[in-house]
Amino acid sequence: MNALAKPLAGLKVIELGTLIAGPFASRLCAEFGAEVIKIESPDGGDPLRKWRKLYEGTSLWWFVQARNKKSLTLNLKHPEGREILKKLLAEADILIENFRPGVLEKLGLGWDVIHALNPKLVMVRLSGFGQSGPYKDQPGFGAVGESMGGLRYITGFEDRPPVRTGISIGDSIAALWGVIGALMALRHREVNGGQGQVVDVALYEAVFAMMESMVPEFDVFGFIRERSGNIMPGITPSSIHTAADGRHVQIGANGDAIFKRFMQAIGRDDLANDPSLASNDGRDARRDELYGVIDRWVGSLPLEEVLTVLNRAEVPASRIFSAEDMFNDPQFLAREMFLSAKLPDGKPFKMPGIVPKLSDTPGSSEWIGPELGEHNAEVLGGLGYSAEQVAALKGDGAI
User: Fold this and answer.
1) What pTM was estimated for this model as a whole?
2) CA–CA separation, 80 vs 274, rounded Å?
3) What is the CA radius of gyration of the chain?
4) Cis peptide, bond prior to residue 356, ω within 30 of zero
5) Does residue 2 surpass a pLDDT of 60?
6) Can you name the residues that pair with 250 across neighbouring β-strands?
7) For this structure, is 281 an active site residue?
């Protein structure tokens, strides 16, 4: 492979998605070289174009979420619109869609039709509850998936109602599972001589899969993990503390040797050398006492002094970063976690960098999220449509 090539170069991905889960999955493909053609309704396109902070009428999030993608407008209720989509699918490698189950089938574009059209195509289906089961027809956003999957129940403080995490984490986790599934299916297709298949990702299952030991703990002990604020139940000490200047720090000193160094660094040799605290089970039994000690020490110093002591003692710790903190942090800068780009009017702005970092075939951002239908002529021209035919399709409401 050419050292400058991208690992997904040569793959064609068709995105039939809006908002978060489907578009995030295809964004990852686009960042690593796949040609991603995003199908949008001619009537306004993806609603994400108007979500959160807008710059001259377009979401800044859109410019990131749709980077490296080509925007093609198709009216899928129009027979010509569906015919164009079929032509694209006939030569595609992956289809990513996040409609409610049954929507594509009603359009005559179910898996049986698509698979017959292109037996090699991998179809990633992201939905609230999956393509089967009694809940499959219910609407299910990421917030519902986070609730049903167990995340919301354990997030927050024990004396308060559950809280959300601050981002649409359920959608993003589902997107990651979708990409992993697609790459597995491609591996099977290319190495084992298999055909295309369906990757069925339910948002609630994507979250549920991240719930660590929740299932065996309930099954074996009848234990239900509850909300515990900032601490990690059963793993001590690991929590957030507030410094004298009101700023916050996460300290993870739950390793046996780390705990001893931590206590020595803050002048508590008595705790460092206490045999009952030498392992996690003993520390967890005295959790409240230890957190009281740590709270008092952190609260007596400004954050920078706290971090200096902890770093010197090699105790894992971090300030709670805001966006402003990130922009000025040498680690973020050294790892190129901010990419420079330009908005449509030429104004420079920063976008998040590419994850993961590949040594030989890194991903990149080539262009920001496109205007609605920006690539109509290019994509349709590639299918053999003339300029006159494209104009006629537009006039007829097909694109």
Assistant:
1) 0.93
2) 76
3) 25
4) yes
5) no
6) 240, 318
7) no
